[in-house]
Structures are given as C-alpha cells and as structure tokens.
Amino acid sequence: MFHLFSVVLIPFFLHPVAAAAAQSYTLIGQQAGKSIALGIGAGGGAAGAGAGIGMLFGKVIEATTRQPEMRSEITQIQWLGFALTEATFFYGLVGGFIAFFL
Q: What's the whole-model pTM score?
C-alpha cells in the first residue's frame, strides 16, 4: 500500500510545485540571458572605445612630434575623434539596455 501511495499520489500532489519550479527556472534563465546581453553590450562598447581612444591619442602624439606647428589643428581634431570614439561605448550600452529590457 505504501508503495502505491508513493508512486501514484505523491507525484499527483507535487505536480503544481514542480510546474512552479520549472516556470521559475525559465524566468531565471531569461533574466540571466538578459544580464549577459547587457554585459556583452557594455563590455564590447567599452573595449572598442578603449582601443579607439588609445590609438587616437597615440597618433596625436606622433603627429604633434612630426609637425609641432600644427598642434592647434591636431588638438581640435583630437577632441572630435575622442568624442566620436567615446560615443561607441554609449551605443553598446544602449544596445545592451535594449536587449535587457526587451
């Protein structure tokens, strides 16, 4: 009798609990995927911006040492390039937020 009870009735009583657990695992998986998307978006944007800014300032130093008389024009172009390169980080961050919230 006990064996029949454990085989037939316990799974019948635990079915709603198992269904709720499966649903919560699905929700946890979705949240984890969204968090990973946010991390990849922000991390990729930061890596791209870091590489771009490093290359930009390296080339500015080279250009200034080659032509010191062009320093003011080079500096103006440098700050424009810095702003545009830094914008790539925000594009990645916004893409990550879109993936996170949608």
A: 0.60
